[in-house]
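Sequence, structure tokens reproduced for reference:
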Amino acid sequence: MGAKETVSVPVQVEQHIRELTKPLRDELRKITKRREQLKLEDQELRAGEKRIEQVLRQLDPASFVAKKNGKVSSTHVGSPETAERKRENIRAYLEQNRDYYEENGIIAAKLYREMKEDGIEPIASPSVVLEAIRELHSNGVLRADKKVKGGAMLYQFVGSNDGKA
């Protein structure tokens, strides 16, 4: 018997499989390399975008457009119309959830978190929520009930029955 005949069938099969899969392995390496290049390019573009946005916020904050989830908002961040919509949203949210807030009271920070979790747009900052609550208090809609742990004020609707004697 010759030397060629001593190669076992499983070894021949493995050699044949390697020959058949070599183009696929080469293609996979090319794809992986290209994806790494794109990832690096994306990181560089994001860094550039972030830096430009920082400069725009500093140089011209009034014209900077807010972005949410990659979508550009059509409302101007600091416009009086947007500020009024935020206050209206706070009042409407309190009315829609009046039963809950009559039972539990209203704390500005908690209200802010709940509105944010519920996706109320436009999103009001914690200071805007507090300002709106203080405005409702000064207009006689809410009453300051008591200070709570941490120093925050708990508000109740005027005339609400909170179960206290």
